[in-house]
Fold these 2 entries.
Entry 1:
Amino acid sequence: MIGYLARRFGQAALILLGISVVTFVLLYLLPADPVRQIAGRSATAETVDNIRRQLGLDLPLWEQYWRYLSNLLSGNLGRSYLQKSEVSELIAARLPASLLLMAGAITCELVIGLTMGVLAAVRRGAWVDNLLMVISFIGVSAPQFVVAILLLYVFAVQLGWFPIGGYGTFAHLVLPSLTLGLLGAGWYARMMRSSMLEVLRQDYIRTAQSKGLRGRIVLFQHAIPNAILPIVAMIGIDIGMFMSGIVVVESVFGWPGIGQLAWQAIQRVDIPIIMGVTLVSACAIVIGNLVADLLAPLIDPRIKLR
Amino acid sequence: MSIIAPELGMPIAPTRPIRAQSVLGRLLRRPMAVTGLIIIAVVVLAALFAPVLTPHDPNEQYFEGLTLEGAPLAPNGQFWFGTDLLGRDLLSRLIVGAQTSLVIGVVANGIAVILGSLVGITAGYFRGIVGAVLMRFTDLMMSFPALLLAIVLAAIFRPSLWIVALVIAMVNWVQIARVLYTETRSLSEREFIEAERALGAGSLLILWRHILPHLVSTILVWGTLGISTTVLLEATLSFLGIGVRPPTPSWGNIIFENQTYFATAPWLVFIPGAAILLLSLAFNLLGDALRDILDPTQQGSSS
């Protein structure tokens, strides 16, 4: 167990190190000279040289990487070209909004996905089951920005049930969470369906039924709790999907999270911010996978640690 | 990761080499697959015959294409799908946009499949240090959110059509590499490969004659599903303003140009949106059906 933990943490640390190398190389590849961007067009050659030295861009490559890495480790993600503030502060200020959105999305996706999955498994082959399949296909094929605009158009513009965008109340949270959640819901529905079918085949379900328990009790007390177990660990893996989704969803709904921050940075080619958000997301994904791996055996003792 | 990869990381068990005719026959017996094939055929025909099919010049800003107040026209007898903010014919732009989507879908996905196959098969067959390094790199790329990585790359290299295709390929090769790695690994441990090696056959010959034919069905399935992901990624990048640049129409940048008017001119968002959804759906349906047909051990969604 301890060996497994050490190895798994070691792997995660290695991947994080690799991520820092990739982001460093990407930053280095940039055709736009960061010194010019900071100094402005009218700066003299002397000023440019000064800034270059201040930033350490005259050092050899490995030394630059070393500085970059030690900065990262102390939480310094660099400065925005245009906003004249620390990227880490900009991200920290917007992280709570994104986390709130993520919580909303996970709730939507679990409630919709698991309900659909259970219904489909219980009514296997019936219209609910077929409908589920169609919906889950559409869910993975629909461009999120179109879903976002569609929900806005129907529920905010036409029906007026929710605000058109922004942040602050519970009503603001509903549509963006739903947009993000729908994609995952189809995917959870399919997994829950096959997990339920697997559980319903088991002997203990047949025993429960044959000793005369009513169908609903068998379903809610025996089948569903067991079928949910393998699904829970998937939430950690989901984080990658969210991190891609929030750029689009936050920009459409005007949600002030790190996705919108990245989108605004894209419009102004403010690379340090885009890179900072990418780095934070990649870390979130690595940690999410790690947590999922560690949770899996706790939830389902049949999974052996290797 | 990715935003759109369905059923990631579920390798398909190695199967016997496939016969094209029987596969097509079995595809045609599945309503979902036929739906997918029809949609793809319509889009391909539209793209191929775009110059003949477009009812209007896609780039002409028609004077009669705007109301007296300068607002775009809703779908009507002259402009079937309405006009955009500049008075251009939406249907004609959609037809030309089909070319963009297909070119990127085929080119980007083609590069991704080739790259993913090279990495996955090499790592799976040779293993050792080469394999370990390649697969750790694949894992590393997997922990970047696909869309964000594509955004960074697109921001670095000012995008044109081909750069967008390349950027998408750089992001999308990862899943196929993972799947092929697992399969090649298990294949290369099988007796018939051991026997070939014992007989002194060279690695390249074994790979080409004995390993690759067994991987064709997997490559076909993932290649088809990958086009769906690619179409979505291109549309999303163009929607964010860093994909295909206007005036070249793409379904994503049509929405990008018109999104602020979605409340008053919803057709400008939802008609191209429906086109993106249908094309992506079509490749998903086809890929899923192919998986069901080519791999009897894997239970597809219709089981």
Entry 2:
Amino acid sequence: MSLKKYQNELIVLTALFLMVVAFFYKSAQVTLGAKQATQMQQSVNEFKEIVALKRVWADKKISKKIDKLQQLIPASKVKWSKKGKKLTATYQGLSANELNKLTTKIMNLAVQIQLLEIQKSGASYHVEFKCKW
Amino acid sequence: MNFMGSNKELLLVHAGMQRQFLSHDVNVMLTPQYYTLKREELPVKYLYQAKKIAPSLFDGLLEEVGEYDYMVYKEKGKWVFIAYNPGQIRSLLLSKGIKPEQVSKIFFAQQAVDAFESPVLLKDEKALVAIDDTVAVVPQSALNEEIKPIAFTGSFTPKSGVTLQGSYGSLLSMGQAIALACVFLLFAGMFFMEGSRYVKGSLATQEEMQGLLEAYPSLQSKMQRESIAEKYMTIDTAQRKKREIIKSLSGLIFKGATLSTLLVNEKGFKATFNCSDKKVLKRLEQLAKKENLTKVKATGNNVVIEGTL
């Protein structure tokens, strides 16, 4: 069979084949592009999360912020021991209001709570708090 | 040097030609019976202009059977127009046993006028001769006996010829094929361009990542990032849980229910509530369940809630 007989059809088929190849190339690139974009976006989000976590849990100003736990309560009721990156604080004779203030403050500080012990004694409260950062 | 298929055998197709039995492709040259010739001196410069006016030159000269194509070229300062009927040529070739698809190029005897220095004898007592720069078929009896005829060889092959487009039983004409191919190639080009554009699509995110890496050089290593993420994730999860528990337990304090003790450490938690009566106790138990605190134990007026972290 001579191919020349079908040369016009061959021209069209070749062009059609190229078009189909190009279409599959485009489809593959779209899929690959979307996958890469998702992966990259995921990496960016993870990076941002790490940065945010580091900002929260490795806050360089946290040491100063912790001092507010001492200032919040009258000094006569507080026994304060801050060594390096660790704190042990004991509060005695706290009113319900003072206890509320103290626990709210503790909750909002980005420190690692090691111990929080509250004991009611009559109308007052005894608190022992240990944390590190 | 001729690149137009001169290496193929050249057959002189004429009325008296015997039937051929071919197993290979050939070039053919047609004698003047199968084309109409006009030589004109026209004020046109370009070939495409000459081709445009070719049909009008043959008005009334051609048989009104089938469609004609035209070959135009310049020879000794004059435009040479050759009109031929592809359908008729196809029939002629078939009648001589030559399948149109076996024909690579078709040439016209007039194109090789310079090669006809002497007559070329044909089988049916006729001969091809060049008279006044025109190749014509004449009876052999009219030839001068002193002039020796020459053999028809491949050296008669002109530089350019024509092909019988669309006359092999092809479904598409060359024009249609080219038009369709152009459309497909256009789409192919569009798809390729679109495809390559998608690769560049994530450039914005890449730039964002680059910006972050520059801002935090200590996090450039992936291993370091993973290590830091693991460290702080663990801290974050544990500390958030502790705070959630404290928040849940503080939500259990209401009129009649007071917190007696609370212990939260690294391992777990334990809280004791004192209730004023059974009704308060029951409500506290219900609230604890709502907060997903399942390990609830009531002893007298006291409720102990504990759990692990």
